[in-house]
Amino acid sequence: MDWNNFNELKILLVDDDRLTRELGQTILEQVPNITIHQASNGKEALNMLEDITYDLILLDLYMPEMDGREFATTFKKNTQFNVLPVVLMTTDRLSLKELKELDVEYYLTKPFNFQTFLSDIYGFLEKVKVLNET
Questions:
Q1: What is the pTM of this model?
Q2: CATH number at residue 27
Q3: Cα(100)–Cα(76) distance, integer angstroms
Q4: How many domains in the chain?
């Protein structure tokens, strides 16, 4: 993986479980050009989007206050976020139909494999980069 293929990356990690957020951040911080911000629910994440431009959102599906479904629906209504990729993190196995309904192309099944977590994120970012270049 050549992380230098990307400029400075800002990732928003949204999960109500503090341990999941901390583990995700610890793993992602191994890459020098990644900055991670955390939110504990969808409402907090939407507020953070007002101030910072992110390159990727890692989004838990089940959270209090505003879950991943509600966040994705609200988020995708804002046309400025149409190109911002969202990776859904869930304990469920989702069908392509469910992903399409959420307007999410990528997902990780929790508990995810922390040994492949970085390569999974790299792969998602590579796909997005190719899509944006075409």
A1: 0.88
A2: 3.40.50.2300
A3: 12
A4: 1
